[in-house]
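[Q] Does anyone have a clean structure-token version of this?
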Amino acid sequence: MRITILTNGPGELWGWVRPVAYELRKRGHSVSLWLLPCQFASGHEREAASLLAVDKLEGPASASRIWQDITNEKTDRIIQLGGDIMFGLRMAEKTKTPLTIYNYWVRKDIKGVKLLTAYEQQTNNIPAATAIGDLVKDALEMDITPAAYHAWDWPKLEDSPRILLLPGSRPAIRKPARDWLVDVHECLKAKIPGVRVRALFSQFMPESELEQWKKAGLNPVRSGAGIAMKEADFALTQPGTNTFELMHCGLPALVVAPEKFLRFVPIAGVIGFLAGLPLIGMRLRRAGAMRLIRRWNGFISLPNRIAGHKLMNEMYGDVTPEDAAEEIWEELNNPERLSKTRAELLKLSGEPGAAERLCDIVLSR
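[A] Here you go.
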């Protein structure tokens, strides 16, 4: 059977598409992968997608080009794993092919479309949606290989805490994040002599940029999250899919969203244009961020939204490196709470096998 997968950003490609494409190929199906336009793209999506051994790879390209080309697709089933659903709806309409959509925040019911998500809590407003578990959990298991373990290490200082830094996948935010994390690191060293830090990046991080992080003293490493997160004691991250990765690995974390980073977050459409204007842009971005936070009871991390209460520590607004270092220091000095958090995160994580369940549903339609 010929299966078409539509996706967009780095998190969706590596965390969702990777286990699904592997499962489909294992079952003997042909996989066609389309990379949709994405304002959060890292610039290395096609390079990453080429490692998935799909039978056909299209994109990334302009929205107008993709909009036209998808009408010529020859396929038996369509799976959308990220990106604007208008592309999936158009392909399904033009090819007369069943469409299945998986995302974390399921949208309204769409006639003829099967909606899937990770957790029951995400289906509260869409009764027709089906929770099948988190594909990211399956992707993390794919990271764990003997070769990956052999390549991973920490600076050799026994009994000193190991803190993983997650700067994000978007190039535009990594430079300001690096400067901010350098200051966090300096504050941590003053509080915890011998503290060990590593900055985690995907395998597609350019060597030239990696060298800049080395010079900054942040010990960058290109590694699968499934290895790196299980070897750390604590993490410092921004909001995003990586908070689910941390949950699945049982790694306590501080999730920070400094207001000074808001101007680096891409926004699509007319609002995105207005947000780029010098006088009103930051006010629009600030108001939008606060609306989103209020919508989720004040939480910015995905595990906290799913649990409905605080599992991961969060800080947003006027957050300084000193604030973050102080919060991390306090957490590391409470081993009982850290142990409890690890257990609660792993309990919330759920069962593996989401990719198998998704493929069963898609192929039965």
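[Q] Thanks! Anything notable?
[A] The CA atoms of residues 258 and 319 lie 5 Å apart.
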